[in-house]
Amino acid sequence: MHGAVASDASEGVWSARGGVAACGIAVMAKASVAGRSKTRLVPPLTYREAAAFNTAFLQDVADNLRLAARQASIAGYLAFGPPGSEQFFRDHVAGLDRIEAWLPNFGDCLHRAVEGVLARGHASAVVLNSDSPTLPTSLLVETAQVLALPGDRAVLGPATDGGYYLLGLKQAHARMFEGIAWS
């Protein structure tokens, strides 16, 4: 999918409506560094190949977000880390705004990303893992549509490993991220 969408996220449906997108979706993004990215894939991959794999995933997820923004009121973000890696994302995953969200506890990273998206004026915030480059665009669009309905809502995309691939909220509920042993 990488390379299929050449436009900036700013060309999405929401910008034609003049204003802030209803839903901000932030990909939880770790900069690709050989020996620090996707190390569970080594072997059979080398550390350099695993880092390149991570970059490809990030680019594909970003392309998917841009496509979703053409179909619904969505703005895409990278909730990134570690600190000092912003240039990596400028160089390799252009077109999405960035929110630094690197803390010792992953739950705190998620909470910071949700707060960062909501602080930009969106009515809802979604955090999305970077390990789902083939996630159907329709699921991102449907998530934004469900979160646009009245009332406090949450959307959870459960993963087969017991975790999640997506979490959408209308408020930054800190307790949702506390007391969990994140892997």
Largest sheet: 6 strands, mixed
Bin the helical content.
25-40%
How much of the sequence lies in strands comes to: 15-25%
Secondary-structure element series: HEHEHEHEHEE
CATH topology title: Spore Coat Polysaccharide Biosynthesis Protein SpsA, Chain A
Briefly note the structural class of the backbone: alpha/beta
The tally of beta strands, per DSSP, is 6
Q: What is the name of the CATH superfamily?
A: Spore Coat Polysaccharide Biosynthesis Protein SpsA, Chain A
Q: What form results from the Cα inertia axes?
A: globular
> Distance between the terminal alpha carbons, to the nearest Å?
28 Å
- Return the domain count: 1
User: What is the rounded Rg?
Assistant: 16 Å
Report the average pLDDT across residues. 88
